[in-house]
Description:
The protein is an alpha/beta fold. It is 44% helix and 13% strand.
Amino acid sequence: MSLMFDPETAIYPFPVKPVPLSVDETQxxxxxxxxxxxxxxxxxxAHYYTxxxxxxxxxxxGGCISDSLEMARFGAHHSASTLxxxxxxxxxxxxxxxxxxxxILMPTLDAExxxxxxxxxxAFSAFCDAHPDRTVVVxxxxxxxxxARADWVVxxxxxxxLIEHLDSLGExxxxxxxxHLGNYVQKQTGAxxxxxxxxxxxxxxxxxxxxxxxxxxxxxxxxxxxxxxxxAVVDLADAVGSTSQLIAAxxxxxxxxxxxxxxxxxxxxxxxxxxxxxxxxxxxxxEGATCRSCAHCPWMAMNGLKAIAEAxxxxxAAHEIHVDAALxxxxxxxxxxxxxxxxxxxxxxxxxx
Length: 353
């Protein structure tokens, strides 16, 4: 366990909640964004955790709604010269690392991630130096500098498979930054995993007591849990997985009611996948005004229509992502390893189908 970071005492610079737009303002900015996307040869790439109106606009304009792995793939292969990344800052950095020739814009560069904030490069590098015999695997939710320090980058959708692969080679692992996902992967694989002690403020708030009470109210409901949640919450799940895996599980599970323990932004695509089912938000620890995230990342909420329009119209220092060339080269290596491994995994899965 690292003594360098304590998620229980961490204080994050939470953003001010955006002012909701009126119906007329919403329509105005939607149409403006559509025009600007065409004028700039740009495409909108949105994460599952952004607000539904952002995801709907990405669909309408030929963009992408996905998890961070598919966002990385989509942006790298799309013909657009500009990517508008609606998400949090590490996603924009990842897009720039994979597509240095493209202009990468974000609605705001202040959209942080508690996992990224909780894994500062200098402290993490010292942690790695203290364990030189271990292979360093970092979650995509990290800065370019932390990625450059790693041997591998990974997303939750392929985390178990990658650690199984490294374990089969006899490698011992440093995992960062999410302690819950790291513990889940260790439990699933039996690998020797040393975890950095970061946590996602959204998933860390799901607690067993409140979830157990909700299960009692909905006894026929299945529970879907992201593995960034505490192990005791994962133990209550009928399905555990990444955002894309949870959407797939929602569609295939026979249950008509689903209690979903992840950011409520996922409901937009999940409801599309199973429109006949009832989706229920899993309760967070605060169960009201005392919760920190209330099951929605406060930084994801910064990706509003007005901010997207401003990014496309003005660009500049407030919106454009830049990554130092040397840092990009260092981060590109473990990112490409991830993408190559994911591609091999897809081929293997198809071959066994």
